[in-house]
Amino acid sequence: MDAPGPYRLHSSLLYQLTLTSRLQERRLDEGLRALGLTRISWCALLAVGNEALTQPSAIAEFIGIDRTAMSRTLRQMEAQGLIERRAGAGRDRRQTEVALTETGQERLLRATPVAEENARHFLSKLPEGGAEQLRSLMACLREGEPRNLLNF
Hints:
Elements (H helix, E strand, L loop, with lengths): L12 H21 L5 H11 L6 H8 L3 H13 L3 E5 L8 E5 L1 H22 L6 H13 L10
Antiparallel strand pairs: 1-2
């Protein structure tokens, strides 16, 4: 058996995956920044506006971040007028419910084309069927791994 050669960073598949991820993140970040959003605040708008999630813990789980990061994001979004937090209805009024404001709904509508265009930009470079294939392969790589992404 041959001894392995030196590790070659630039030929590493996972390094290539990291570079690709960072490229698409940077491009998306630039588009969202023009609207006063971060990736996390964009994801929170999606969670509340499109997925009808109202509990901060459910929103954090949807995004894949911890509760502390979610609380910080929600405070910033509330200061920007994108969301409002209020005491939950029912028996346990200690629970917080999150809702989009009119400004938050408008920002969600304006940010959606930015994210869609970013996806089109990168996915159009793949051959036919490549997007589904890549989606499946990435799911395999994530299988069994923790979902909490503290540095999302």
